[in-house]
Amino acid sequence: MFRTEVKVGRIPVTGVQPVVHCGAVPAKALIGEDIPVRATVFREGHDRLGATAVLHGPDGAEVQRTRMTEGAPGLDEFVATLRPAVVGPHSFTIEGWSDPYATWHHAATVKIEAGVDVELMLAEGGSLFRQAAADPDRSEADRAVLARAVRGLEDTTRDTQERLLAAEDPDLTDVLAARPIREFLSPSPAYPLDVQRALAGRGAWYEFFPRSEGAVYHPESGTWASGTFTTAASRLPAVAEMGFDVIYLPPIHPIGRAHRKGPNNALEAGPHDPGSPWAIGSPEGGHDAIHPDLGTAEDFAAFVERATGLGLEVALDLALQCSPDHPWVAEHPAWFTTRVDGTIAYAENPPKKYQDIYPLNFDNDPRGLRRAVLRVVELWIARGVKIFRVDNPHTKPLWFWEWLIAKVHRSHPEVVFLAEAFTRPAMMHALGRAGFQQSYSYFTWRNTRDEIAEYLHEVTAETPAFYRPNFFVNTPDILTEFLQFGGPAAFKIRAVLAALSNPMWGMYAGFELFEHVARAGAEEYVDNEKYEYRPRDFAGAEARGASLAPYITRLNRIRRAHPAFQDLQNLVLHPADNDGILAFSKSRRHLPDGQYRAPAGVAPPVFPGVPDAAALTESLPGRADTVIVVLNCDPHAAREATVSLDLAALDLDPADLDSEGRFEVEDLITGARWRWGADNYVRLDPFVEPAHVLRIVRED
């Protein structure tokens, strides 16, 4: 005998997003982030229906309820936005329901116009509103509005059209919008959202090598004195002044001697060459130790304290690999791969070879190795590190990252893991699903307008539920041809694009000095800092006008002043009739009154470095913070174009428009103002200014 189990509600709700692995893995979200949700909601026949998105907080209580609107016409798609206000595990559901008012109103309008069943339709409307007024949860004010509609429908002294208009009164539609008449309520399953702190998915990163900051060359002996945490701390105020939120340090541990690399990755190192920080481990210690040239644990604590006082958070490299001199090599040989000739396999990324590094093997003693790594991570958390940039996570098994990140988050939910994984998309996405909050990305190699547009659509519209990119413009390993040959304009273009298209971006020291000379035949810097000291005269370059630091400072201040730049999924691309011109907008709207119920005692969410930025849109009830970026992607020539704006995407209000349907914009780079509309001429010369960064001017 067959048993039939119904798996859909009376009003089917399918295709809910954002959902990862059918809800087995929480979708990613940030405090204060606008999360687009969507679902397919449909029913049999022609009766009208509605949908509601409901957000539940960490305690399971409902904190937001918003009526969904129809998305793509004819596809039964409904969309809405949810905005979590506290950190912690949330969930959301989509409620499908029959809409008796919309069904009746459509039928009544058609039939009364045709003179069919006129009195019957008006009577059915009166009955519907009487039932709604009987709802015990409605206020007396609501009941009065519904009663007035009943009287209007039943007033036979008026003509038919006047009676019907009683059911279209604005007061009535407001009441029904706030509390719709709903039948056959059919909720979807609850789907999880992992809401994390702001720096898990927002913020500007700056990378430097502490050993280079304050390093001194002694020409009489041909030797270097390494910079220390104390000298490196003197660089922190300038980094903070540029508007960065995170200061990222490459590994700070002792460096091995065996197979130490020399300048430019030379196989032979001189007696005073410092070696690569990623060749971790020596007799002085391993991943739990500090390189003695940099200072002591107390010196590191002082560095962290200084950074914190400047509004910077310290991120540390977690590179799970060892030099041949690492204590683990002798103590735990099973943690490495031994080849048939008895040697331990070193790291390779053909054609690159890293003879100074032994990769870890997680298959021989997984329990012992994972305990050791957890101990290392917890030690650095105790030393004040809450962000880890993980080196080459794609060369370790996924089960390990899933275990480690979950284990750490049980005790330290604030800890952030960034995956430095330049590999196949399937693995990069899988690392996100395993728990990494953010990842390096292929943004670095997307240079043409069409390449950039395609990639921006992918990371903002297709993968945000599990993959959040951090747009680094350069790294110690990566100096793209675009930067090598594009001149100073190329550096401006990449900075604008990274900083303003994505809530996370990063740069490695030297970018602001236009460093662009590559090692012959390689896409990396000549005299690479990975293998030698490289102190820089940042202040001197700025005094000479040879620094991009003031421009970077401007971009970061623009990011901070406009909450629209702090979300990932609100980017909309706009067409331009020149293949060198990229245009996009971002908007963030104030939530309507009554749509969100914050838990008692919870303050509004804040963005990195800007305590009052989230309040910007809140101070303009019902208004939006909207920004438009138009960028010349060609560093070699001026480009002209007509930019055609999707006006609906700009959240324009009638008050924003003049009599000709145009609105005022202000360029946040130059201060110039123009009147813009649907189609707008631009000319951008990269040697003068490659971008318009426009805000829509809205008066209080």
From TrEMBL:
<comment type="subunit">
    <text>Homodimer.</text>
</comment>
<keyword id="KW-0808">Transferase</keyword>
<keyword id="KW-0328">Glycosyltransferase</keyword>
<feature type="domain" description="Glycosyl hydrolase family 13 catalytic">
    <location>
        <begin position="203"/>
        <end position="559"/>
    </location>
</feature>
<dbReference type="InterPro" id="IPR017853">
    <property type="entry name" value="GH"/>
</dbReference>
<feature type="binding site">
    <location>
        <position position="392"/>
    </location>
    <ligand>
        <name>alpha-maltose 1-phosphate</name>
    </ligand>
</feature>
<feature type="binding site">
    <location>
        <begin position="530"/>
        <end position="531"/>
    </location>
    <ligand>
        <name>alpha-maltose 1-phosphate</name>
    </ligand>
</feature>
<comment type="function">
    <text>Maltosyltransferase that uses maltose 1-phosphate (M1P) as the sugar donor to elongate linear or branched alpha-(1-&gt;4)-glucans. Is involved in a branched alpha-glucan biosynthetic pathway from trehalose, together with TreS, Mak and GlgB.</text>
</comment>
<feature type="active site" description="Proton donor">
    <location>
        <position position="420"/>
    </location>
</feature>
<feature type="binding site">
    <location>
        <position position="261"/>
    </location>
    <ligand>
        <name>alpha-maltose 1-phosphate</name>
    </ligand>
</feature>
<dbReference type="InterPro" id="IPR026585">
    <property type="entry name" value="GlgE"/>
</dbReference>
<dbReference type="InterPro" id="IPR013780">
    <property type="entry name" value="Glyco_hydro_b"/>
</dbReference>
<feature type="site" description="Transition state stabilizer">
    <location>
        <position position="477"/>
    </location>
</feature>
<feature type="binding site">
    <location>
        <position position="356"/>
    </location>
    <ligand>
        <name>alpha-maltose 1-phosphate</name>
    </ligand>
</feature>
<dbReference type="Pfam" id="PF21702">
    <property type="entry name" value="GLGE_C"/>
</dbReference>
<keyword id="KW-0119">Carbohydrate metabolism</keyword>
<feature type="binding site">
    <location>
        <position position="321"/>
    </location>
    <ligand>
        <name>alpha-maltose 1-phosphate</name>
    </ligand>
</feature>
<dbReference type="InterPro" id="IPR006047">
    <property type="entry name" value="GH13_cat_dom"/>
</dbReference>
<dbReference type="InterPro" id="IPR021828">
    <property type="entry name" value="GlgE_dom_N/S"/>
</dbReference>
<feature type="active site" description="Nucleophile">
    <location>
        <position position="391"/>
    </location>
</feature>
<dbReference type="InterPro" id="IPR049171">
    <property type="entry name" value="GLGE_C"/>
</dbReference>
<comment type="similarity">
    <text>Belongs to the glycosyl hydrolase 13 family. GlgE subfamily.</text>
</comment>
<protein>
    <recommendedName>
        <fullName>Alpha-1,4-glucan:maltose-1-phosphate maltosyltransferase</fullName>
        <ecNumber>2.4.99.16</ecNumber>
    </recommendedName>
</protein>
<dbReference type="Pfam" id="PF11896">
    <property type="entry name" value="GlgE_dom_N_S"/>
</dbReference>
<dbReference type="InterPro" id="IPR013783">
    <property type="entry name" value="Ig-like_fold"/>
</dbReference>
